[in-house]
Amino acid sequence: MLATGVGSMPGLDAADFDDAIRLVLDALVGDRGVPHLPEVPGRGPAASMTGRALAVVADLGFDLQPAGWRLTDAPGVDHRRARSLLAQDLDRLEEAAQGYTGPFKIQVAGPWTVAATVERPRGDRLLADHGARREVAQALAEGLGAHVADVRRRVGGADRLVVQVDEPALAAVLDGRVPTASGYGRHRSVDRPELSATLAAVLEAAAAAGAEPWVHSCAADVPWELVRGAGARGLSADLALLSPAGHDVLAAALEDGEAVALGVVPATDPTTYPSDAQVVETARRWLDMLGLDPESVRDRLVLTPTCGLAGASAAWARAALALTTKAAASLS
Question: How far apart are CA 191 and CA 215, in angstroms?
């Protein structure tokens, strides 16, 4: 089994980002580890999940308004700051990863999470405007291809590059649960064919750039069958939030040779730290329930925290990654 982090890490400034890179490269290396580009959203909106994705988007401008990010005619100061911050983080990654060889993972917010969190020029979410949400999704796909190429150049020893597309809002978009700007209404549900096609465009861009496309969500009621049908070759979920149908989809993915990243370690500081034996037992019971032999999926099952570690203390973030790696080695 392998081990990786979901993406986000605790911290408030550039020094904390440097600490996060060192931690990820120390804790998630070796035969079982998949290190990743850390996200430190505590640095502000430019470093948030949405800000990070907008830094990747090609040829469009955004700005930060009191209500959040908004699509604009040209990049505003906060959008330029997000792009600059991503470039600086990649510079730091390149320096820290000198001599590294092995798999590596990066993360980006998906098109439906961006549509649910960014406003269109005249207000309310992009989700309310079919043309705008399609345009932004296309620009995200285009920019992602260039971003993957840049990361591959900087981490030259990466023999397997994973792009994790984060879609925490996907289930809410499908179910019509995204609130309007007023807070009194809800945006209409998007039909499944459009959901799938839009997500597929971004996943295809990652694959075309030579990366392995995964989709992550630590929300409940994620339509995992739709996600897999859109072209995800890795599914990353919180084990505790999986529905019966979700268990079946993840099992089918493993049986078909695809990756499954299973969230089994708390993402925030627990009252009592679990042992690696407890984490291993959780994963074993899940495999037993599905009738899968651990040996048969040892190169495809990936253990992770249940979600990003941004809300954890620095001590637990370090312990969580170490625990995840130790459990993966024990389970193997």
Answer: 19
Closest CA to 40 of 270, 317, 325, 266: 317
Q: Where are the beta strands (DSSP E) in the chain?
A: 2-4, 33-34, 61-65, 68-72, 102-109, 158-166, 212-217, 234-238, 259-265, 301-305
Query: Which has the closest alpha carbon to 192: 224, 166, 165?
Result: 224
Collapse the DSSP code of 268 into the 3-class scheme (helix H, G, I; strand E, B; otherwise coil) and give the result.
coil
For residue 133 the two structure tokens come to 């949400």
* Token code pair at residue 236: 């990353």
Are 324 and 23 in contact by the 8 Å Cβ rule? The answer is no
Q: In 12-129, which residue ranges form alpha helices assigned H by DSSP? A: 14-27, 49-56, 77-96, 111-117
Specify burial of residue 76 (Cβ count, 10 A radius: 0-12, 13-18, 19+): middle
Task: Give how far Cα 152 sits from Cα of 3, 104, 198, Å.
Answer: 21, 9, 25
pLDDT at 191: 95
| Residue 256: both structure tokens together | 């078909």
Dihedrals φ, ψ of 320, to 5°?
A: -65, -45
Report pLDDT for 123. Answer: 82
Question: How would you label 207-222 residue by residue, b for 16+ Cβ within 10 Å and e otherwise?
Answer: bebebbbbbbbbbebb
Write the single-letter amino acid at 105: K
CA 230 to chain CA mean position, Å: 16
Q: Is residue 97 helix, strand or coil?
A: coil
Give how far the C-alpha of residue 180 lies from the chain's centroid of Cα atoms, to the nearest Å.
25
Residue 250 has a CB neighbour count (10 Å cut-off) of: 25
Contact, 330 vs 280, CB < 8 A? yes
**pLDDT band at residue 182, thresholds of 50, 70 and 90?**
confident
Q: Using one digit for the tens of pLDDT, what is the confidence trace for 14-31?
A: 999 999 999 999 999 888
- Please say whether the dihedral angle defined by the alpha carbons of residues 5, 8, 12 and 18, taken in this order, is positive or negative: positive
Could you give the dihedral angle defined by the CA atoms of residues 43, 49, 52 and 57, in that order, rounded to the nearest 10 degrees?
Answer: -160
Query: What's the pLDDT score for residue 332?
Result: 78
Q: For residue range 244-258, list pLDDT tens digits in order.
A: 999 999 999 999 999
Q: How many CB atoms lie within 10 A of CB 91?
A: 11
